[in-house]
Design brief:
8 strands; 136 residues; six-stranded mixed sheet; alpha+beta; two-stranded antiparallel sheet; Nuclear Transport Factor 2, Chain: A; 4 helices
C-alpha cells in the first residue's frame, strides 16, 4: 500500500517489504529500505549507523544463518511509528544447530524509509513454536 499520492510505501507496507527482503535473503534490497542516515540499535548487536553499516550487518546475518525465515506476528502503526513482533528460525552455519528467534521492537519511518530501528531479541535452541504460540 502506498502512502497518499507520494508514491512512498506506508509504514506497514515498508515493514512487510522489509520482512520479504529478509526472507528472500536480499541484503541489498533490505538495506535500500533504510534511510541513508539510518540508525539500528538492536539488543545484543553493535549499533549500525547508516545504510552501508546496515548492509554489512545484514550480510553477516545471512552468512551466519543462511536459511533464516521470519514471520511478522503482529504490527501496529501510529503515524510514522511501527511496533512489530517477529518470530523466526534458521540453522547456524557454524554449529549446524536450529535456532528460534523472537523479537519485538520499534521502527521510525521517514520519507518512506526506515530511519531508526530498535529491536529486543530472544534467541534460543528451541522450536519456533515455543517462542511463537500463534504458530500452527
Amino acid at each position: 500500500m502506498r502512502s497518499g499520492d507520494s508514491g512512498l510505501l506506508s509504514p506497514r507496507a515498508l515493514v512487510e517489504a522489509w520482512i520479504g527482503a529478509l526472507n528472500s535473503r536480499q541484503a541489498d534490497r533490505a538495506a535500500e529500505l533504510y534511510s541513508p542516515a539510518a540508525r539500528v540499535e538492536d539488543e545484543g548487536s553493535d549499533r549500525a549507523d547508516g545504510r552501508a553499516a546496515v548492509l554489512s550487518g545484514l550480510t553477516a546475518l545471512f552468512r551466519e544463518i543462511p536459511d533464516l525465515h521470519l514471520t511478522l506476528v503482529s504490527i501496529i502503526t501510529e503515524g510514522t511509528t511501527v511496533a512489530a513482533e517477529i518470530a523466526g528460525s534458521g540453522t547456524t552455519r557454524e554449529s549446524g544447530r536450529r535456532v528460534a528467534i523472537h523479537g519485538a521492537g520499534f521502527l521510525e519511518v521517514e520519507r518512506g524509509r526506515i530511519r531508526t530501528q530498535r529491536f529486543y531479541w530472544e534467541l534460543g535452541e528451541r522450536s519456533p513454536e515455543a517462542l511463537n504460540p500463534k504458530t500452527p
